[in-house]
Design brief:
Elements: H1 2-5, H2 12-28, E1 42-46, E2 51-55, H3 64-81, H4 86-98, H5 102-107, E3 118-122, H6 129-137, E4 148-149, H7 156-164, E5 170-173, H8 185-196, E6 199-205, E7 209-214, E8 219-223, H9 231-234, E9 237-242, H10 251-260, H11 269-282, H12 291-295
Parallel strand pairs: 3-8, 3-9, 4-5, 5-8
Antiparallel strand pairs: 1-2, 6-7
Helix pairs in contact: 3-11, 4-6
Length: about 300
C-alpha cells in the first residue's frame, strides 16, 4: 500500500503477484519465516479469549525479600522525602498502580465501557512534581526512560509516537503553552480523544492507506502554571494536583536525595511486578481500586 501511495506501482495486480511469489519462495525454501510483530510493551485485553495478557515485560512475582525491600523504600519515600505532601504522594501512587492497565480497561476488560483519565501536576519549581511522577510512573514499573517535554509532543505525529510506545504512563513536563495557544487546538483534541478511546486518531495517507494512532499510554502532565480552564478537557483528568510555595524542597535536600535515594529506586520494580502478577492472575478490579492490591 505504501509503494502504491508513493506512486511506485503502475500495475497493482502484477506487483502484488510478484511480491507474493518472492515472499512465498523465501518462506518455502526455509530462508524466511513468518512472525507476528510484537505488541508495544504493556498489558492488553484479548476479547476473543476473554483474558488479560502481558507483552514484552517481566511479570514474574518478586521474592519476599525483594518485595520487603521495595515496601520499605516506598514507605521511606512517602514519609521522609514526600512527608510535606504525603496525601499527594498517596493519590499519585493509587493512580500509578493501575495506569499500565488503563488501555486494557478501554479495550473492554471490565465487560463494560470504562476509562480512567490523565494526571496533571502543577505548582512552583522545586516542589518535587516531576520527580514524584518519574518515581511512581517509571521506577515503580522498572522502566528506563527519559521524561518527555511539551516540545517533544507539540505535533500530532510526535504525540502519536508517545501514545503508542507502551501501555505504561508517560510523563510530559512543561506543557502549559500547549493548552494556551490556539495553534495547538488539533493536538488538544487528539489528547481529549486518547483519554477515553483506544484510538486517538485515524487518517488516510496518500488517499489509500489508513492509519490509526493507538492511545495506549496514559499521560501525566506537569507545569508550573495551571493552564486548564476548559471543563470538557478537565473531565479527562482523574487527578489534578496542585503544589504550593510552602512545599518547595531546599536545594541541599534535593542534593541529598539524589545521592542517597536515586541509586536505590530500581528496587521499587518489585512492587510493579507484584501488582502485575496479581492482576494477570485475578483480573482488573471491577471498581478500579488498584490501591486495594497494595493494601493486601
Amino acid at each position: 500500500a505504501r509503494l502504491a501511495a508513493g506512486g511506485r506501482v503502475w500495475a497493482r495486480r502484477l506487483a502484488e503477484d510478484f511480491l507474493s511469489a518472492v515472499l512465498g519462495f523465501y518462506h518455502d525454501s526455509g530462508l524466511a519465516r513468518v512472525e507476528a510483530l510484537p505488541a508495544a510493551p504493556g498489558f492488553y485485553y484479548l476479547e476473543r479469549e476473554g483474558k488479560l495478557v502481558a507483552a514484552g515485560i517481566r511479570t514474574d512475582p518478586p521474592t519476599l525479600e525483594e518485595l520487603r525491600a521495595a515496601w520499605e523504600l516506598l514507605d521511606e519515600l512517602a514519609t521522609r522525602w514526600w512527608g510535606h505532601a504525603q496525601a499527594k504522594f498517596a493519590s499519585m501512587l493509587r493512580w500509578a498502580a493501575g495506569a499500565p492497565f488503563h488501555y486494557a480497561v478501554k479495550q473492554g476488560a471490565l465487560g463494560r465501557p470504562a476509562w480512567v483519565g490523565y494526571v496533571f501536576l502543577h505548582g512552583p519549581p522545586d516542589t518535587g512534581k516531576s520527580e514524584l511522577a518519574r518515581v511512581l510512573c517509571y521506577d515503580l514499573w522498572g522502566l528506563e526512560a527519559e521524561m518527555e517535554s511539551g516540545a517533544t509532543i507539540d505535533t500530532v505525529a510526535r504525540l502519536g509516537r508517545v501514545l503508542e510506545r507502551w501501555t505504561f504512563p508517560t510523563v510530559v513536563n512543561e506543557v502549559s503553552h500547549l493548552f494556551r495557544e490556539d495553534r495547538h487546538e488539533e493536538l488538544v483534541n487528539v489528547i481529549k480523544n486518547a483519554a477515553e478511546r483506544t484510538v486517538a486518531r485515524g487518517r488516510y495517507y496518500g488517499g489509500t492507506e489508513y492509519r490509526e494512532v493507538r492511545a495506549r499510554s496514559p499521560l501525566v502532565f506537569t507545569s508550573n502554571a495551571m493552564p486548564l480552564n476548559d471543563p470538557a478537557f478537565l473531565k479527562r483528568f482523574a487527578l489534578v494536583i496542585g503544589f504550593t510555595y510552602s512545599e518547595v524542597v531546599p536545594r541541599e535536600r534535593q542534593e541529598l536525595y539524589n545521592r542517597e535515594v536515586r541509586p536505590r529506586l530500581r528496587a521499587l520494580e518489585a512492587i510493579g511486578r507484584y501488582v502485575a502478577a496479581r492482576v494477570l492472575r485475578e483480573g482488573i478490579p471491577g471498581d478500579l481500586d488498584f490501591a486495594g492490591l497494595l493494601r493486601d
